[in-house]
Design goal:
The chain is an alpha/beta fold. It folds into 2 domains: 133 residues, Udp-n-acetylmuramoylalanyl-d-glutamate--2,6- Diaminopimelate Ligase, Chain: A, domain 1 (3-Layer(aba) Sandwich); 126 residues, 3-Layer(aba) Sandwich (Udp-n-acetylmuramoylalanyl-d-glutamate--2,6- Diaminopimelate Ligase, Chain: A, domain 1). Helices cover 33% and strands 24% of the residues. The strands form 2 sheets. A 6-stranded mixed beta sheet has the order 5-6-8-9-10-7. A 5-stranded mixed beta sheet has the order 1-4-3-2-11, sandwiched between helices. One of its GO terms (cellular component) is mitochondrion. Keywords: Hydrolase, Metal-binding. Belongs to the GTP cyclohydrolase I type 2/NIF3 family. InterPro entries: DUF34/NIF3, DUF34/NIF3_sf.
């Protein structure tokens, strides 16, 4: 539980790092989606934030158990208008439980995707192992006009100073995201694991629409349809597909570091930002 002042501090800190103006408002639903602060304003208050990709029942249990004041759920759990809120729907039950517990929920989603230093820059770092190894880093779909976010936008393309083998690229992706297995769609030239890669396009989550038509040796994303994968191969581009939220979850450590620092700058008191231990991608490769 958090006071209105605490919720405001947490929300303003998240929005300073990831301005809502960066989000794709044509379809995305970002911002403070559940607001239920305490009526009182304690003189001394701990700011307690739980970070997750998806707001599942187990994450709600965790938030209540940890006495979180705000949950930062990367994916919005409300997309369309609600005509009723009942116990018959699992997400609505979670909403009611959080409201009763006085826990607010903020969802930044595509604002984090587009931000400079956000999730897509994180994925490029996984590929290149640092800007010193890059000839260039470009945005696929720029988002302009947001102060302090010059160079923001959806998707990224990196061109490496020194080409690497496809097997090395796979190793970097698995290590950077903490995965044992990924899916690949290989062109004939990349069926040789020693084939060289000099350019990689990335987009967290479901990246097919953002990366459509982007010229790169490999497209690296979380989710790709059957015909989209075929289309890439037919046009000479291979793909690495890791599972939708697996391309996003690794960024939570960076989010944790940045948000903790910003909250400590704004709040004269104790701050705790933790990452959910139960949040995980619903699909597994076995």
């Amino acid at each position: 539980m958090s006071s209105k002042r605490a919720v405001k501090t947490i929300v303003s800190s998240i929005q300073k790092l990831y301005p809502r103006a960066l989000a794709d408002s044509s379809w995305d639903n970002t911002g403070l989606l559940l607001e239920c602060p305490l009526d009182t304003e304690p003189e001394k208050e701990k700011l307690n934030v739980l970070l997750t990709i998806d707001l599942t029942t187990s994450v709600v249990d965790e938030a209540i158990r940890n006495n979180s004041g705000v949950v930062m759920a990367y994916h919005p759990f409300i997309f369309r208008g609600l005509k009723s809120i009942t116990q018959s729907d699992s997400q609505q039950r979670s909403l009611l439980r959080l409201a009763r517990a006085g826990i607010s929920v903020y969802c930044p989603h595509t604002a984090v995707d587009a931000a400079v230093g956000g999730v897509n820059d994180f994925l490029i770092d996984v590929v290149s192992l640092g800007k010193e190894n890059e000839a260039s880093r470009e945005v696929c779909q720029p988002v302009d006009g947001v102060q302090g976010q010059e160079g923001a936008g959806m998707g990224r393309v990196v061109r490496l100073k020194e080409p690497i083998t496809f097997s090395e690229l796979l190793k970097r992706v698995k290590t950077g995201l903490g995965l044992k297995h990924v899916q690949v769609a290989l062109t004939e030239k990349h069926e040789n694991p020693e084939a060289k890669i000099s350019s990689v396009a990335v987009c967290a989550g479901s990246g097919a629409s953002v990366l459509r038509g982007v010229d790169a040796d490999v497209h690296f994303t979380g989710e790709l349809g059957h015909h989209e994968a075929l289309g890439l191969i037919e046009n000479g581009t291979s793909a690495i597909v890791c599972g939708h939220s697996n391309t996003e979850r690794g960024y939570l450590k960076t989010f944790q570091t940045l948000l903790t620092k910003e909250l400590k700058n704004q709040h004269d008191g104790e701050v705790e930002v933790i990452i959910s231990q139960t949040d995980k991608d619903p699909l597994e490769i076995v």
